[in-house]
Design a protein that fits this description.
- With 190 residues, the chain is of the alpha+beta class.
- Helices cover 21% and strands 43% of the residues.
- Strands 1, 2, 6, 7, 8, 10 and 13 form a seven-stranded antiparallel sheet that branches. A four-stranded antiparallel sheet has the order 9-5-11-12, with no helix packed on it.
- The protein is globular and about 55 Å long.
- It starts with a helix and ends with a helix.
- The C terminus is likely disordered.
């Protein structure tokens, strides 16, 4: 008969440890907001003049084949975009995901986002999302109002199954550049 008080005490302890205090919840939300302070939505109006910009192609693999070439190994992919400039922001104008046939699967940005100096952002394609296929890719477009160092844009693919894990990175390749810096054009003209 003495087990009942102990049983109730255990139940109360479980309930109390499962509850999160409002202060802790607010701190978690504050940490998330702090992580996003390096990014803000911007509007590019007719007065905006880009000094530099690029279009970058990044290969992504949602799965690879193994064994007899018919078995599929699904992969999670993380697209990482890192502003390497020490003092100036860049503006991400587009992040688009295409499948193996070149068909647009998803547009990740609804509006341009400014990425602060030395800040980074990422996009994750879940390992269960095989819509891109083996030849999937991201097209990332960015601009800046002043001359900046180029961002690093790359993808990391990772997969684990049956005590086997694989991972690798895939660097982005610039496929189009824009340079409207008046200083560089006047130097070229002389």
């Amino acid at each position: 008969m003495k087990l009942y008080p102990l049983f109730y005490l255990v139940i109360v302890a479980i309930v109390l440890t499962a509850c999160t205090s409002p202060e802790i919840s607010q701190q978690i939300k504050a940490d998330i907001n702090v992580a996003n302070e390096s990014q803000k939505v911007v509007t590019l109006d007719g007065n905006f003049r880009a000094a530099i910009g690029q279009t970058i192609y990044v290969p992504i693999y949602s799965h690879i084949y193994h064994g007899d070439g018919k078995r599929v190994f699904n992969l999670a992919a993380t697209l990482s975009i890192r502003n390497t400039d020490l003092t100036n922001p860049i503006i991400m104008t587009s992040v688009r995901y295409y499948d193996s046939n070149g068909k647009l699967v998803k547009q990740y940005l609804k509006q341009p986002i400014q990425l602060a100096a030395l800040a980074s952002t990422d996009v994750v394609v879940d390992r269960t999302d095989t819509s891109g296929g083996v030849g999937a890719n991201f097209i990332v477009e960015w601009v800046a109002q002043t001359k900046v160092s180029e961002p690093i844009v790359e993808a990391v693919m990772i997969g684990t199954d049956f005590q086997q894990g694989i991972s690798w990175s895939s660097p982005g390749k610039v496929i189009k550049s824009q340079n409207n810096d008046k200083r560089s054009s006047s130097v070229r003209g002389s």
